[in-house]
Structure formats: C-alpha cells, structure tokens
Amino acid sequence: MKSPNMKNLSGPTIPIDDGKLFQQSVTAMTQAHSENPVLLIRGLHKHFRSGSEDIPVLEDFNLTLKAGESVALMGPSGSGKSTLLNILSGLESWSSGSIVLFGETMTPSREADWTALRRTAIATVFQEANLMPALTLRENLQLRASLAGRSDPDVDGWLADLGLNGLAQRYPDQVSGGQRQRAALAMAFVMEPGLVLADEPTGSLDRRTADQVADALFRFQKRNHCPLILATHDADLGARCDRTVTPGNQG
User: Which residues 6+ apart lie within 8 Å of 139 measured at CB?
Assistant: First the structure.
C-alpha cells in the first residue's frame, strides 16, 4: 500500500515517498521566506501511563515556526523537551492536539510518512554523535545523502566546512568527541533538510568544542534559512536562538 500523499501549500499533490519531488516542496517553503509556517502546533498534550497513574508531560503546548526561525526549548529535565523532539521526528505519539508540518496535518498513525520525512526532510542531531562505527566519516555522509535522495552531495565540502579536513577516511573511533559531533552535523547538513531538530547537541562537549559545534550549527541555519528547534539546558546556547520556549507554554 502506498503512503498518503503530502501536499505543498500552493496546492499540487506531492507524493511523500518520492524524495526528490518532496524535497522541492520543502525547499520552496523553507527558502522562499514564505509567510506560511513550516510547523504549527496547537493544543498538544502528551501523557504517560505509570500503573494506574496518568503523568502529564506536555500540556496544551503551542508553537509556530516559520522558515529561517530558530527556537530554543528550555526547562529542567523532565519538562518535555526531548519528548517534543521525538514527537516532531515521528518517533513518539501524542495524546491530543494538532501538528501541521510542511503544510500537512500529521498524525501518529502516518508511520510511512514520518519515515519519509526523517529520511528526506528532518535532520536530528543528538547529544552523542549518531555515526555508523563501521563506516568512515566520508562514508557516513555519503550514506546519509543517499538515503535523502541527494544524487551529487558535496561530502568533502561539508567536511572541510566543519574543520574535518584530512579526516574523511577515518572511522568514528579514530577521531575526538568534538570531531565526531561535527561529523554528525555534516551528516545533517548534507541531506539539505527542511527542519533541524537538535537535542542537547553540545551537552557532552567541553566549552571550547561546544562553541565550535554551536557556531557551525547556527552558521548553517542562517545561511540556508533552515528552521531550527534546539533543546538545551545551556542558557548561553539558548540565547543564540531567535526566541525561547518552555514546553507546555504558548509558543
């Protein structure tokens, strides 16, 4: 069975399982300075069950994100930052509320569409670099670009842009933690995403290395007019975003 179609905001139907056509739709939304939001969340609730107890994590959360905007999710551990990013990656369901992403109303049941979005349009950067240990840095980027449908990615250009010259043939365990995290950023960038989700991307790094990784992230975000949602405990990092939101509050 084919997955449901995804529509861009101008009307034509775009098959979400066609990576190239879908990417054109995403690019049009994120780079054309459209007034239509890339992401619209209204009345989002997320509860967990623990035995007979119902535990609220997100309560009536609202957020509007336009092309080129960056938003920091701040708050203590357990406030729902990572849960929200998991929901927006299609990795976790929600209890109630609506999510409109790239002009399409999404639901937890649209698993095939969420998978296609993760493959072609949503880049996620984690606290620990998510690299394939059996592949070199270059091969990791080539694999990510291929999954996203990019036929001629500038892999070496991205590695150079992130200060990884001369390391393309090394394996993840042959480079430092900061270098692995910059390679993870390069993996996100090479797919030319329509949305970047970053979950504590500098949390495990020393301050100097963390600043270098943050500089690369925001340089890409601004240069490519790519919307960014960043979950962090670091007030200085959060302050680099256009605005700050606490999960559960009006965005």
Answer: 132
Do 29 and 36 touch, CB atoms closer than 8 A?
yes
Set out the domains of the chain in order of their start, with CATH numbers.
Answer: 6-245 (3.40.50.300)
What's the predicted TM-score (pTM) here? 0.85
CA distance to 81, 214, 215, 222, per residue, from 219 (Å): 23, 8, 6, 5
DSSP letter (8 states) at residue 59: E
Quick: pLDDT tens for 23-46: 555 555 555 445 789 999 999 999
Rounded to whole angstroms, the Cα distance separating 24 from 194 reads 10
pLDDT-derived band at 232 (thresholds 50, 70, 90) equals very high
Distances (CA, A) of 8 to 31, 35, 69, 196: 14, 14, 19, 19
